[in-house]
Design goal:
alpha/beta; 4 helices; globular
Length: about 220
């Protein structure tokens, strides 16, 4: 069985390291806040002006004035700080963010990412994606492996407008975990119930299978 959105987020949370400053993009990445591993401390940054973002609130405990960049209600942790967007993007552009987790419409085998616009569709804008992909020290993508028609979203090259060039380091999809290398996508883990053959069939970009590939622990 392919992973659901929460399982993708839970697997990405395993990549967090103690002391990291982490920006979570809109969509699946925001769910990572609910799965911070025990024993480590990370500071979650929201580009609308918050350091110290906590997990999502329980139903009935929402504060409509406390939101993330995707306009979802959130919680704060002790020591949280609020500031304007100029300060927030100053942090991002100066390389203070250790890890960015983003969603994507497409990722190319060389690490290019397209995640902000489908031509002909109405969009609100690119948000902070272009700043994040050009400034973060490490970028992990959370995404569905294929589109609704079953077409691969891991491609030889992106067909949609590019957000950033050669910036993605790792992908966690509903089918597995992939490093982006000089030789394209490298599958290092597969989701429970997913076969390597299925991954090969659904990956259009250049794909290698790690000699130490293993089933994902979630």
């Amino acid at each position: 069985m392919a992973l659901d959105k929460n399982q993708i987020a839970k697997r990405i949370a395993q990549e967090l390291q103690d002391g990291f400053y982490v920006n979570l993009g809109i969509g699946i990445p925001t769910l990572v806040a609910n799965y911070i591993p025990a024993g480590i401390e990370v500071v979650l940054q929201s580009e609308n002006g918050l350091l110290g973002m906590g997990p999502f609130p329980f139903e009935g405990e929402e504060d409509a004035d406390l939101i993330n960049a995707g306009k979802q209600t959130i919680t704060t942790l002790p020591g949280s700080a609020f500031f304007d967007s100029a300060m927030s993007f100053g942090m991002i552009r100066s390389g203070k963010v250790d890890l960015t987790v983003l969603g994507a419409m497409e990722v190319a085998e060389n690490g290019d990412i397209a995640n902000w616009k489908v031509p002909g569709k109405m969009v609100k804008g690119m948000g902070g994606a272009m700043d994040l992909v050009s400034s973060a020290k490490n970028i992990i993508v959370a995404m569905q492996h294929t589109d609704k028609a079953g077409n691969s979203k891991l491609l030889p090259s992106c067909t949609l407008p590019i957000t950033g060039l050669k910036c993605v380091k790792k992908i966690v999809s509903d089918l597995g975990v992939f490093n982006v290398t000089e030789n394209g996508f490298e599958c290092i883990e597969f989701a429970p119930g997913v076969t390597i053959e299925e991954i090969k069939q659904k990956t259009a970009g250049k794909l290698t299978i790690s000699e130490s590939v293993k089933e994902m622990a979630i």
